[in-house]
Every structure is written in C-alpha cells, then in structure tokens.
Amino acid sequence: MFRSSKRISILAAATLLANFTPAFAQDATFPQREGLRPETTNGVPHIQLNVEPVPELTAMMLEHVAELSGVTLGATRVSLPGAVGFQLDREVSLAQPDAIVGGREFAHVHPDGSLHASLDPELARVAIEAGWATQHPWADQRPGWEGFVMIYTPTTEAELEIVLQLVRGSYSYVTGRSAP
After folding, report:
1. Could you tell me if 164 and 157 are in contact, meaning their C-beta atoms sit under 8 angstroms apart?
2. Is 132 within 8 Å of 152 (Cβ atoms)?
3. What would the pLDDT profile of 56-90 be if each residue is shown by its tens digit?
4. In what order do the strands lie in the sheet with 84-88?
5. Helices and strands per DSSP (H, E), number in the chain
6. Which residue blocks in the chain are alpha helix, DSSP H?
7. Is the bond leading into 45 cis (omega within 30 degrees of zero)?
8. 166 Cβ partners below 8 Å, 6+ apart?
9. pTM
C-alpha cells in the first residue's frame, strides 16, 4: 500500500484523528497522500485546476458534516456560488473566533469537492506536508488565519475519511469541542 515505514495506514490515521483535540494537534500524523498535488490558483478565488469532482463523495461528506453538533449546511457567506458553507449555530461558542473567515462559517466545500477550512496551525502544517492541503493565499493576511487551508478534493472513500478527519479537526479547533 504505502512504500515508507514512516507512513501509517489510512485507517490508523483516521483512528488517530478521530480522537483529535486542539491540545495535541502537534502530535497528529497523516499518511502521505498519493499522486500529484492538484494545481491551484495563487489568488482569490482560490480554486483547484483540472480536478474532476466525485459528486457521490461530496454528498457523503455533506451527510457527515450535517451530523456535527451545532452545524447547519447552507449557502456559503465567503466563497463562490454553489459552495456549501458549514455554519456554526449561535449557541455554539467559539474557542478561536479569529479563525472564522466570515459569519460563523468554519469551512466550506466548493462545487469541485475541495474545501477551505480553518485548522489548528500545527495540524495545517502536518496536512500540507503530507499532501492533503495547501495554504490559502490569504492565510498570512490576518491573525487567526495561520491555519486556513484548501483541502484537496477526495477521489476515493479512503481519501474522504482523511478529509472528514480534517473537517472534524477544523470543527474542534474553532469550537473547542471534540467532534464525534
């Protein structure tokens, strides 16, 4: 499956990240994402280039995100038309309010299946190094955005599991709550 002993299985990574809390983001590890990194634009809109979405995986992702406590799916407040925002309900307190890009939206998925999300900066670094994400061009523009990344479109169910763990990591980071 993976060629390096430094890499762990996708299942092991998913198990590790399922227990993710902001307090140990520095301990998170990921399997190396296989294949080339998708190309992205260098500005805004920050989008992937030449990537085919997998609508079934995006639908599965949205089903899982909708199950997070205090999250409502809806039109994005900060992204392109057709993107779905992951909005935190008013009763959900924010542990990292500066990480929110707009309104109470902690992440959103684009029509191509890629996402923008606010991660703990150390978790973002690990995800970028493992090939799962890239820093948003504006990540260094404002305090609190240091972990703002684009997570690449999942193309398999195994990749979707890692992407969902990153979304749960974003939820945990922004709210201070453990995600199921």
Report:
1. no
2. yes
3. 999 999 999 999 999 999 999 888 888 999 999 99
4. 71-75, 84-88, 105-109, 115-118, 148-151, 133-135
5. 4, 8
6. 10-18, 55-66, 121-129, 157-175
7. yes
8. 17, 115, 117, 119, 123, 127, 132, 133, 151
9. 0.83
Residue 86, beta-bridge partner list: 73, 107
End-to-end CA distance of the chain: 28
Q: Answer positive or negative: Cα dihedral of 109, 64, 101, 104.
A: positive
Helices (H), 19-156: 55-66, 121-129
Quick one: angle between helices 157-175 and 10-18, nearest 10? 20
Find the length of the chain: 180
Tokens for 6?
């430094």
